[in-house]
C-alpha cells in the first residue's frame, strides 16, 4: 500500500526499492509468474492513456514499480540542484533489459529508450554545467556537450517512432520540438568550446569556422524555442551574446591580423562525445536497499547469491574450454583448406562404376528409336552409291574422249605418210567438243563436292560408332568409359588417406559432441538445493567439489585437442604419397569427362548428319542424271567420229595405186632380223 501511494521524496524512492526487492524475494520462492499456480491479477493505470491494464504476473507488479521509481527519480532530479551526475535512467534501463515490453504501451522498448536517453541527457547537462563552472579544459567541455547532443538525438529518434507518437499524442510534438532545440543548442555549446580550444592552440582559421558553426546552430535553436518559457529565452539571448561576440571578434582578428585560411567545417575532426554520467544502479537483492528478507525462512538469500557465484564459475570454465577449442578449430580449418581434400570425393572411384545420368538419358532416347544407326548407315550407303555412279559415268566419258583423241591422232599420223591430197583434213566433231566442255564442268563440280562428301563421311564414321555404342547394351557403354587402373600400392595409399580423413572427421564430430555435452551439463547444473543447506564458510569447498563433475569431460576434450597435431602430421605424410595417385586420377577423370562429352555430341549430331546426308544424296542424284545423259551423248559422238574416220581412211586408200611385185632382196630380208637382234 505504501508503494502504491508513495510520497514524492527520497523516502518514496526508498520505499519503492524495498518493495521491488521484496517482490524479487517473493517471486523466487512462490510461483506467481504468468500462468503459474499462485498467480493473481495485478492492475495498474497507464500514465499516458489512463487505461487500466491487468496481468496475472508478479513481474508486471515489479515492472510498474520500476517505472514509478524511474519517474520519481526524474521528478526529484528536476527539483534538485544541478550538481549530480547520477540519474533516473537506471530504473528504466533495468526495466528495458530485464522485463517483457508487452505489459503496456508505456513500457514499450521505444518509450523506455526515450525515457533513458532523456534522463541521461539531462544528467549530462548537469555535468556540463558543473564542468563549465569548474573551468575545465575547452576540449573536455566540448566532448561533454557533444554527448548531451548524442543522448538527445537518441531520444528524438524514439520520439519519431510512430508507436511513440500515437501514445504520447499532442505532447509528442512539444517534446520533439524541445529536444530538437536542445540538440541545436548543445551542439552550439560544443562548437563554441572547440573554437575556444582552437584559440588556445592559435589556430585562428579553425576558431572562426567553429564560432560560425556555433552561431548557425544557435540560430536554429532560437527558431525552435518559440513558445518556450522566458527563462529559456533569456538563456538563449545570453548565449547569443557570448557566441556572437566571440565570432565577430575572431572574424575581425583573422581578417585584419592573422589572415589564416578558414577551413570547411566538414574537413575538421568531429567532436566525439564523452559519456560521463551514470545511471543509478538497481540491485534487487541488495539488503542495504531492500531491508531484511521477509521470506528468509522459506529459502535463504545466501543460497541465491551463492548460486549466482556458482553460475559465474561455470561460465568461466566454459569460456576457458571454448577458447582452446576455437583456437584448435581455426588451425584445423586453415590446414584442411590448404590441403583441398574432400573426404567425399578424394578418389571418385564410385563415379566410374555407373553410367552418368546424361548418358543414360541419351541411351534411353535411342532405345525407343532402334533404327537410328541403320538409317544413318543406309543413308551413307545410298550417298556412296550415287557418288560412285557419278564418278564411274564421268570416268567413262573421260575414257571415251581420250580414246577418241588417240584414234584421231593415229589417223592423222597415217594421213601424214601418204602423198598430200587435194583439200584439208575434216574439222573435229562439234559434238565431241561440246561433250568435252560439259564433262570438264561436271568434273569441276564433282571435285568440289567430293571434299565435302569426304568430310561428311569422316563425321559419319566418327559418330556412327558412338551412336552404335549408345544403342547397344548399357554394359558396353559403361565399359567404353575410361576408368582408373590402380596398383595394390595405389589402393593402399588411397585407403590410408581415406582412413586418416575419416579420423579427422571423427575428431571434429567428437569435439562438437563433447562441447555440446559440456554446455548441456552447465545448463542443467543447479545446486540451489545444496546451497540452502550449506554453511557460507563451506561454499568455496562445495563449489570445488561440484565443479569436479566436469573434470572427466574436460579430460576427454584435452585428449581430443592434443590428438590434432598427430592426426594432421599423419595426414600430411599421407597426402605426399597420394600426390602421384591424385595426378593419375585427375587425368582419368579428364578423359572420362571428354568421352562422355564426345558421346553426347555424337547423339546431338545425328539429326544434322541425316540432313546433310540427304542433301548430298539429292545433289549427287541430280549430278548422276546429268552425267548419264552426257555419257550417252559422248558414246554417240564417239561413234559418229569413228565412222567419219573410217570414211576418210577408205577414201585415202582408194587414191593410192596398187603395189608392183618385185624380186626379194637380201637386204630387205635382213632388216627384220637386225631389228629383232637390236630389240
TrEMBL record:
Q: Which UniProt keywords apply?
A: Coiled coil, Cytoplasm, Endosome
GO cellular component terms attached to this protein's record: endosome
- Mind telling me which Pfam families this protein's record contains? ALIX_LYPXL_bnd (PF13949), BRO1 (PF03097)
Q: Kindly list any coiled-coil regions of this protein.
A: 497-524
Please list the GO biological process terms of this entry: early endosome to late endosome transport; endocytic recycling; protein transport to vacuole involved in ubiquitin-dependent protein catabolic process via the multivesicular body sorting pathway
Q: Does the keyword Coiled coil apply?
A: yes
Q: Which Gene3D superfamilies match?
A: alix/aip1 in complex with the ypdl late domain, alix/aip1 like domains
The residues forming the signal peptide are none
Region ranges (Disordered): 642-679
Residue ranges annotated for the BRO1 domain, each copy included: 1-332
Q: Which SMART domains match?
A: BRO1
Q: What is its main location?
A: cytoplasm
Record's subcellular location: Cytoplasm; Endosome
Coiled coil as a keyword?
Answer: yes
Kindly give the InterPro entries that the UniProt entry links to this protein: ALIX_V_dom, BRO1_dom, BRO1_sf
Report what the protein is called. Answer: PTN23 phosphatase
Amino acid at each position: 500500500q505504501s508503494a502504491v501511494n508513495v510520497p514524492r521524496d527520497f523516502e518514496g524512492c526508498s520505499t519503492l526499492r524495498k518493495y521491488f526487492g521484496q517482490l524479487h524475494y517473493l517471486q523466487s520462492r512462490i510461483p506467481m509468474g504468468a500462468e503459474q499456480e499462485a498467480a493473481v491479477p495485478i492492475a495498474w493505470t497507464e500514465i499516458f492513456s489512463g487505461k487500466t491494464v491487468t496481468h496475472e504476473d508478479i513481474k508486471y507488479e515489479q515492472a510498474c514499480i520500476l517505472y514509478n521509481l524511474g519517474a520519481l527519480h526524474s521528478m526529484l532530479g528536476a527539483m534538485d540542484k544541478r550538481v549530480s551526475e547520477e540519474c533516473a535512467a537506471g530504473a528504466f534501463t533495468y526495466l528495458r533489459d530485464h522485463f517483457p515490453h508487452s505489459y503496456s504501451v508505456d513500457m514499450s522498448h521505444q518509450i523506455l529508450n526515450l525515457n533513458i536517453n532523456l534522463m541521461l541527457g539531462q544528467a549530462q547537462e548537469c555535468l556540463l554545467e558543473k564542468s563549465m563552472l569548474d573551468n575545465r579544459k575547452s576540449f573536455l567541455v566540448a566532448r561533454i556537450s557533444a554527448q548531451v547532443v548524442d543522448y538527445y538525438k537518441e531520444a528524438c529518434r524514439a520520439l519519431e517512432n510512430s508507436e511513440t507518437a500515437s501514445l504520447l499524442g499532442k505532447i509528442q510534438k512539444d517534446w520533439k520540438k524541445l529536444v530538437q532545440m536542445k540538440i541545436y543548442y548543445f551542439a552550439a555549446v560544443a562548437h563554441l568550446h572547440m573554437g575556444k580550444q582552437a584559440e588556445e592552440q592559435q589556430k585562428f582559421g579553425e576558431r572562426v569556422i567553429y564560432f560560425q558553426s556555433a552561431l548557425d546552430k544557435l540560430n536554429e535553436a532560437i527558431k525552435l524555442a518559440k513558445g518556450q518559457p522566458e527563462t529559456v529565452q533569456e538563456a538563449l539571448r545570453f548565449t547569443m551574446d557570448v557566441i556572437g561576440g566571440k565570432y565577430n571578434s575572431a572574424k575581425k582578428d583573422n581578417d585584419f591580423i592573422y589572415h589564416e585560411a578558414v577551413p570547411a567545417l566538414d574537413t575538421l575532426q568531429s567532436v566525439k562525445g564523452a559519456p560521463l554520467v551514470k545511471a543509478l544502479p538497481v540491485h534487487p537483492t541488495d539488503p542495504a536497499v531492500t531491508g531484511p528478507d521477509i521470506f528468509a525462512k522459506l529459502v535463504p538469500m545466501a543460497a541465491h547469491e551463492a548460486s549466482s557465484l556458482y553460475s559465474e564459475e561455470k561460465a568461466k570454465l566454459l569460456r576457458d574450454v571454448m577458447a582452446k577449442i576455437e583456437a584448435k578449430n581455426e588451425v584445423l580449418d586453415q590446414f584442411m583448406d590448404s590441403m583441398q581434400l574432400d573426404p567425399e570425393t578424394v578418389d571418385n572411384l564410385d563415379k566410374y562404376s555407373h553410367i552418368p545420368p546424361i548418358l543414360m538419358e541419351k541411351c534411353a532416347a535411342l532405345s525407343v528409336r532402334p533404327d537410328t544407326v541403320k538409317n544413318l548407315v543406309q543413308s551413307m550407303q545410298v550417298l556412296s552409291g550415287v557418288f560412285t555412279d557419278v564418278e564411274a559415268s564421268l570416268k567413262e566419258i573421260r575414257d571415251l574422249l581420250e580414246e577418241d583423241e588417240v584414234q584421231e591422232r593415229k589417223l592423222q599420223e597415217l594421213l601424214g605418210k601418204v602423198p598430200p591430197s587435194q583439200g584439208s583434213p575434216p574439222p573435229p566433231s562439234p559434238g565431241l567438243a561440246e561433250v568435252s566442255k560439259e564433262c570438264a564442268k561436271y568434273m569441276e563440280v564433282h571435285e568440289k563436292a567430293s571434299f565435302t562428301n569426304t568430310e561428311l563421311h569422316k563425321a559419319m564414321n566418327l559418330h556412327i560408332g558412338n551412336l552404335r555404342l549408345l544403342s547397344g547394351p548399357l554394359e558396353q557403354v559403361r565399359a567404353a568409359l575410361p576408368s582408373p587402373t590402380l596398383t595394390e600400392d595405389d589402393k593402399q595409399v588411397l585407403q590410408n588417406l581415406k582412413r586418416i580423413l575419416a579420423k579427422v572427421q571423427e575428431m571434429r564430430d567428437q569435439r562438437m559432441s563433447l562441447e555440446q555435452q559440456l554446455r548441456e551439463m552447465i545448463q542443467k547444473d543447479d545446486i540451489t538445493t545444496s546451497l540452502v543447506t550449506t554453511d557460507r564458510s563451506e561454499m568455496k569447498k562445495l563449489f570445488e567439489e561440484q565443479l569436479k563433475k566436469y573434470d572427466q569431460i574436460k579430460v576427454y576434450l584435452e585428449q581430443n585437442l592434443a590428438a590434432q597435431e598427430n592426426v594432421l602430421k599423419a595426414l600430411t605424410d599421407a597426402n605426399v604419397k597420394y600426390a602421384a595417385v591424385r595426378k593419375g586420377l585427375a587425368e582419368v577423370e579428364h578423359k572420362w569427362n571428354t568421352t562422355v562429352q564426345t558421346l553426347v555430341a555424337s547423339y546431338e549430331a545425328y539429326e544434322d548428319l541425316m540432313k546433310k546426308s540427304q542433301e548430298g544424296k539429292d545433289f549427287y542424284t541430280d549430278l548422276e542424271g546429268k552425267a548419264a545423259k552426257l555419257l550417252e551423248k559422248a558414246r554417240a559422238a564417239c561413234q559418229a567420229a569413228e565412222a567419219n574416220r573410217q570414211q576418210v581412211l577408205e577414201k585415202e586408200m582408194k587414191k593410192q595405186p596398187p603395189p608392183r611385185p618385185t624380186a626379194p632382196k637380201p637386204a630387205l630380208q635382213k632388216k627384220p632380223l637386225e631389228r629383232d637382234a637390236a630389240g
